[in-house]
Structure to design on (259 residues):
């Protein structure tokens, strides 16, 4: 892990490979380790960078009052500090929400986008009632009870080869940081940002994603000019781990065309 200081926060990240730069943005209650299959597969052709957002992995805790705009600014700050702008950004789930906020505030750092199983915020993509219900469910859970393998994240059981990785990330979740991030996602409505995107965009969705259903993917496809949607059969919400080979093939094909 390497670390840079951005606006008083230590941001940790993993970096490997050489070539066009691809920055990976993880989902909620995860860290950069969730991108291990992608970093390992793509470092032969690309410079791959995966951050730990504030409050995750090796990065600083989130300060009080940290907002969605602060996540977007921190990610843009990392990209500029590493002198890799403009670059391709790849996000999953909550990571898509962060990327959309970054694009709204810092479009110049973005060369192209890969948005997987994501949301324009829970409120924007699922509606206020569902967003509030999800947030209430998270807040009611006792400390340490959050389970990244909750029903809907995978079409079936989590892939056995990644269970140790999921367990390790779960053990390192900081409850306050997780709630800060997911509260920001629950309150966010970034659907207006989708209409403004003017860079090549690849959408990747699991066909059986119950957390961000295909109706969300089709809304993204309809709103983002020129976006292409790839649907992975038999796959749930965490498509990069449930079907890493298919995910990586889609990603590599897109990157070769747009970097």
């Amino acid at each position: 892990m390497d670390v840079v200081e951005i606006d008083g926060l230590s941001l940790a990240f993993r970096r490997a490979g050489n070539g066009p730069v691809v920055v990976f943005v993880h989902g909620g209650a995860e860290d950069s380790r969730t991108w291990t299959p992608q970093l390992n597969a793509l470092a032969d052709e690309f410079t791959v960078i995966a951050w730990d957002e504030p409050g995750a992995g090796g990065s600083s805790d989130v300060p009080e009052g940290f907002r969605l705009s602060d996540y977007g600014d921190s990610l843009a700050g990392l990209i500029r500090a590493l002198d890799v702008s403009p670059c391709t950004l790849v996000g999953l789930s909550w990571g898509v929400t962060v990327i959309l906020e970054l694009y709204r505030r810092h479009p110049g750092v973005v060369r192209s986008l890969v948005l997987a199983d994501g949301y324009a915020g829970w409120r924007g993509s699922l509606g206020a009632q569902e967003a509030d219900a999800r947030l209430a469910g998270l807040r009611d859970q006792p400390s340490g009870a959050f389970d990244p393998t909750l029903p809907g994240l995978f079409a079936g059981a989590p892939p056995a080869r990644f269970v140790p990785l999921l367990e390790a990330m779960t053990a390192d979740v900081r409850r306050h940081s997780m709630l800060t991030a997911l509260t920001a996602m629950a309150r966010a409505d970034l659907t207006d940002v989708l209409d403004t995107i003017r860079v090549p965009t690849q959408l990747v969705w699991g066909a059986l994603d119950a957390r961000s259903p295909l109706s969300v993917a089709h809304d993204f496809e309809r709103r983002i000019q020129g976006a292409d949607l790839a649907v992975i059969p038999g796959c749930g919400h965490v498509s990069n781990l449930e079907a890493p080979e298919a995910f990586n093939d889609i990603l590599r094909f897109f990157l070769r065309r747009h970097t």
Summary: The mean pLDDT is 95. The chain is about 40% helix and 20% strand. The beta strands are 2-6, 9-16, 21-25, 47-51, 87-92, 110-116, 201-206, 228-232.
